[in-house]
Design brief:
Helix content: 55-70%
Strand content: under 5%
Number of strands: 2
Largest sheet: 2 strands, antiparallel
Oligomer: single chain
Strand order of the largest sheet: 1-2
Radius of gyration: 18 Å
Order of helices and strands: HHHEEHHHHHHHH
Distance between the termini: 26 Å
Low-confidence stretches: 1-15
């Protein structure tokens, strides 16, 4: 993640924000694919006929979600199959449309279309899922980070880390929160995020290098 305003931000790493968080991208790809199975549970609790119709029309597009080369087919559909954009528009207020918006947000983020990602993810409504809900918030954080709206990014990373506390998503988003706070020169906020990883998620991958991150921000606050 690069910055241009040196009076309010400071570069702390090379490459884009997402390039520095390859592990989260891998997690996102796996999680998005897993949402297809989660959707089966969702459909049972919503308007059955409409949800089933939307699910059937979205089925083919879901198969394309995790394949970058097929992203456009996932978005726009193919042949008689509905794309995710059409599902989200025509079947609004269904779980299918909600899930389509989450899929779209992930795809647009991978395509580098960050504004579209925020628009799609902004339409996602929390369902109570311990996977989908924090993922949607974290993806919003990623999109705003790439748009260099770091205050918004920090807000969503904090929400994502707190949404469903677990050793998989929470430390990942806490680390991102810390990195964004460093860029905002909120070193105290960054220290708090890193300390939480160290104390609450000591077995996480993020905790293995956390002392280095803590030393960096503590040098700024002392």
């Amino acid at each position: 993640m690069s910055t241009t305003d040196t009076t309010t931000t400071q570069p702390v790493r090379k490459g884009t924000f997402l390039e520095e968080n390859g592990k989260s991208l891998l997690f996102i790809a796996v999680a998005i694919l897993a949402l297809g199975a989660i959707a089966l549970y969702y459909f049972a609790s919503y308007l059955p006929s409409r949800a089933d119709e939307a699910a059937a029309k979205m089925f083919k597009s879901e198969q394309y979600v995790g394949v970058d080369s097929l992203a456009n087919k996932a978005i726009n559909g193919e042949g008689g199959n509905y794309g995710l954009e059409k599902i989200a528009e025509e079947y609004d207020n269904t779980k299918s449309a909600n899930l389509a918006n989450l899929y779209l947000g992930g795809i647009y983020l991978r395509k580098g279309e960050y504004k579209k990602a925020t628009e799609a993810l902004g339409k996602y409504t929390a369902t109570g899922s311990p996977v989908a809900d924090p993922l949607a918030l974290g993806l919003l954080g990623d999109a705003y980070s790439e748009l260099k709206d770091y205050k918004q990014a920090a807000t969503y990373y904090k929400k994502a880390a707190d949404k469903a506390s677990n050793k998989f998503t929470s430390p990942m988003f806490l680390k991102k929160l810390g990195l964004v706070n460093e860029t905002l020169k909120d070193f105290k906020g960054a220290e708090e995020a890193y300390e939480k990883i160290k104390s609450q998620y000591p077995d996480s991958q993020e905790a293995t290098m956390i002392d280095e991150y803590l030393a960096r921000v503590q040098a700024q606050t002392n």
